[in-house]
């Protein structure tokens, strides 16, 4: 068994969650789980239309992710999940699937994130929802297992930094 917990790479849309989570999973020999793949078709349509999801609309998505984490945990599967996990309540739901989750919060300033979002035209999440993402973001608190990384670093440097923190435990 690996010396690190299962990991959720979290943050606002456009911060690089999927890219970093996929690279980190590969580096750790873990399963990469793309949280966006668990959204209902209805939720994708709403977001693509620039309509922010409510907590009620996110509930089924979060429960599905928690169930996936729980199933993997039961099998002893090592997992890295890319999921916004913007609110404490959302992270609590995910911890229902794996109480030992480690959240890796990718953060950056609005201008950088907005620029990155405009550089991915095929993604369903429009730039118009970035304000709601920043508004909803509740940074993990000291009683939550979390690490914090500035996304100004390159993806390779971020994966190296995250890996180093996992294995030296600081």
TrEMBL record:
Any GO BP annotation: D-gluconate metabolic process
Name of the protein: Gluconokinase
Protein's UniProt keywords contain Transferase: yes
Keyword Kinase: yes
Catalytic activity: D-gluconate + ATP = 6-phospho-D-gluconate + ADP + H(+)
Cited CDD domains: GntK (cd02021)
Assigned protein family: Belongs to the gluconokinase GntK/GntV family.
Pfam families assigned to the protein according to its UniProt record, in alphabetical order: AAA_33
Assigned keywords, A-Z: ATP-binding, Gluconate utilization, Kinase, Nucleotide-binding, Transferase
GO molecular function term, any single one: gluconokinase activity
InterPro entries named among the record's database cross-references: P-loop_NTPase, Therm_gnt_kin
A GO cellular component annotation in the UniProt record: cytoplasm
EC numbers for this chain: 2.7.1.12
Listed transmembrane segments: none
Pathways involved: Carbohydrate acid metabolism
């Amino acid at each position: 068994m690996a010396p690190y917990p299962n990991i959720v790479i979290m943050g606002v849309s456009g911060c690089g969650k999927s890219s970093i989570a996929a690279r980190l999973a590969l580096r750790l020999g873990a399963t990469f789980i793309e949280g966006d793949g668990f959204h209902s078709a209805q939720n994708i349509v709403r977001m693509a239309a620039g309509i922010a999801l409510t907590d009620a609309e996110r509930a089924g998505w979060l429960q599905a992710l928690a169930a996936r984490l729980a199933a993997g945990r039961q099998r002893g599967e090592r997992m890295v999940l890319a999921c916004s996990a913007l609110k404490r309540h959302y992270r609590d739901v995910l911890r229902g699937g794996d109480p030992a989750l480690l959240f890796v919060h990718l953060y950056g300033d609005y201008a950088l994130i907005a620029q990155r979002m405009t550089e991915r035209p095929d993604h369903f999440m429009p730039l118009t929802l970035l304000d709601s993402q920043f508004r909803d973001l509740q940074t993990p608190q000291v009683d939550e297992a979390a690490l914090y990384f500035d996304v100004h670093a390159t993806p390779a440097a971020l994966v190296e930094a995250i890996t180093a923190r996992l294995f030296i435990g600081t």
